[in-house]
Amino acid sequence: QQQQQQGSMDAFTVLELSNVNDVNDVLLWQRGFATYNQKSGIIVVDEVIPNVTTTTSNISWALHTHADITLKNSSARLQSRDTSDFLDINFLSLPWSSSRVNITAQKLNVPGDKNQSDPFLTKLQVTISQFQKGERIRLVVQLGEGTVPSPIRPLSNWTLGPFEN
For residues 50 and 69, what is the distance between their CA atoms, to the nearest angstrom? Predict the structure, then answer.
């Protein structure tokens, strides 16, 4: 069996999500999932072309979790409150100026089930602002370890093998 090269895609799928949103909001939205390095990690790629009329529009990607979140540059560590388990999330493709990207972690006090020992949630959010109509936005999220070369091919060009162009 041929050993796969570091940074190679093992399997992938691309979802067409443009019709999930109002056509007035999004011209294109695709989400790709790929496993890499013998399925030791996952990347998620969102490609969006918003339908905006001004440069003051924002787009956000969010995740809700019961884990504690620690932010560092363009990454986040989700740490279990009950065990020593953790997950590192790396935002690999933020080609926008740092003034246009805001990564935050915010505690959310949500009323929970009375049997639930920890009803508190944390929201991890990436917000990209001030983009032009027709600008293609790509957010690449790495879950797990290993080297994923950057840039990663556009979703329309994905095939099995190396990520790079």
Answer: 29
From residue 143, how far is each of 27, 54, 58, 113, 136 by CA, in Å?
27, 33, 24, 29, 23
Asked if 40 and 8 count as a contact pair (C-beta separation under 8 A), the reply is no
Question: How far apart, in whole angstroms, are the C-alpha atoms of residue 136 and residue 28?
Answer: 9
29: nearest Cα among 37, 39, 21: 21
| 163: nearest Cα among 15, 61, 32 | 32
47 within 8 A of 61, measured Cβ to Cβ: no
pTM score, two decimals? 0.74
Q: Which two tokens stand for residue 165?
A: 């162009």
Q: What is the pLDDT of residues 88-143, one digit of tens each?
A: 887 776 555 667 788 888 887 656 555 554 557 888 998 887 777 677 788 888 87
Q: Which residues contact 50 (CB under 8 A, 6 or more apart)?
A: 25, 26, 27, 57, 59, 131, 133, 135, 137
| Core vs surface per residue 91-109: b (16+ CB within 10 A) or e | bbbbeeeeeebebebeeee
